[in-house]
Amino acid sequence: MTASSGDVSGSGERVFLRLGPPPEEPNQFVVEGAPQSYSPDVQARLEVEAKEIIGRYPNKGSALLPLLHLVQGEDSYITPAGLEFCASQLGLTSAQVSAVATFYTMYRRGPTGEYLVGVCTNTLCAVMGGDAIFAELKEHLGIGNDQTTDDGSITLQHIECNAACDFAPVVMVNWEFFDNQTCESARELVDSLRAGKPKDPTRGAPLCGFRQTSRILAGLRDERPDQGQGGAGAATLAGLRVAKEHGMEAPTAPEDQS
Fold first, then answer.
1. Which one, of 154, 170, 144, lies nearest residue 113 by Cα?
2. 161 assigned ligand-binding residue
């Protein structure tokens, strides 16, 4: 949108000012075609689920983060419709909801594929091969950072530390871990996703689609089988094992002298 400010230069030429956020402005939920509101049936369904989520908190404002995951599960990203829905359910303004949503990188700002593939490119993962893996996947998939394949199956993203440095380099798919990756194993992983036969994560539950993952993060029922995939891996526990073998203990805290 533009607005004329009239002749302010004395040259007889009109000056036009662009109103609203610049198109390249980061952290804005402005995507062409994004829903501005939900249909009555979607609204009713989301209200039932939101009521269940909000009821878990003594202060309903505390339910904002799971509600954002709920609407992300509807649209695959945060849309004006989702912002307005969260605001109306919690008695907040859309600006307040947007301020929270833009703070956390797990809330997507554009349409997301069936699988969000995140390659850690932070220091240790990068040194161990993360940068090479990310470059390999960009070429293999024909897309860049935060872009989605034409078939809508994969959105590729370089991400910051996933607190899994002992398994570097790490690739995450819909927030599930694939540890100790190589360029070859990462290519095989994304090929399995595109073929509809996703590999099992190194740790964690079997993969589901990105929208369903968002609904699980919202606190709704997780139908995936619990096969005991959790718990710390051997690499994480190595230091503890060595400490026990050598009788090492943490130093005793000094007594309070106050």
1. 154
2. yes
